[in-house]
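quick one: FE2/S2 (inorganic) cluster bound model?
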Amino acid sequence: MAKITLVGQGECEFDGQFSMLEALDESGFDVPYSCRGGNCGACTVRLISGKVEEIQTPAYESRKGEILTCSVIPTTDVEIELI
Ligand code: FES
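yep, here:
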């Protein structure tokens, strides 16, 4: 299990959910999203530390150091920050 730390808000466990977004959402974090499909960019966060793996190929192009929580899962403990 990987730990997801959302800076300033707390942490939760990633336990096989479909996406990082789903894990955050299930844990009650108020994180932004819209399409859940990698198209809109609303779920963009800054990846401060840790590694993630893409579970779908997003149409939205993230900037360096940023990830789409709807389109990745953590493969190590990660630290992320809302933008
Ligand atoms: S929710 Fe739209 S890109 Fe993630």
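The chain has a mean pLDDT of 97.
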